[in-house]
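Before drawing any conclusions, I looked closely at one protein's amino acid sequence and its backbone structure tokens, quoted below without any editing.
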Amino acid sequence: MAAGKSQISPMPSLATWMRAKDEKWFQPFFEKHPEIRVCDARKGEVSIFDMDGLLLTGGSDIAPEFLHQEVVDLSVLDKDVDIARDHWEFAAAENVIARGLPIFAICKGLQVLNVALGGTLKLDIPGHKLSEQKDRDIQPLRTEAKATHRFESVNSSHHQAIDRLGNGLGVEAWCATDDIIEQVRLRDYPFALGVQYHPERGQIYDALFEDFFSRLNNNR
């Protein structure tokens, strides 16, 4: 992945901050689109003013100072919060939303998007961080009738989720067994889709990535 975007490059630039261990999951999707420059802020400086879209991926819990809620019990949060990443992602989200650029938010990324829009989180939920749900599409969903992307079951494994929705977000899908929000879209916005599950790990989610990547190309 490139660390930054050339000022003379005609390629659309996708900005992200991605953990090293997650690269193998996303690489097959990136390889289908060599015309898109992927810029990883973990590896080097990425100007949020030069990007054409934002991919928010999974990671450790959001640091407490970025949340719009009191954290009564700090022990429920991951010990390896990444404050530098949080600073960059919230600044990037604010920038792209102001410019109307495409956003695809996954797992922690969905939570970042929700908090960036003023929402809050369920900081620890039981029964969702199970190993068998991580790579298998077994968690049943109920989906809003107007949703573009619909899945009967998904591979959702996590211990936090949306509580109060951020401003402008609409729920597209939720867990059929306990109503945990699994898919949202920012209303009255060109393209901002957030999912709690992990499409990069599955075989049924190509359409999500293709939809997002097409928005990057159209944005040029």
In short: The first strand starts at residue 13 and ends at 16. The CA atoms of residues 12 and 217 lie 6 Å apart. Residues 1-6 have pLDDT under 50 and may be disordered. The helical segments are 23-31, 83-99, 108-116, 206-218.
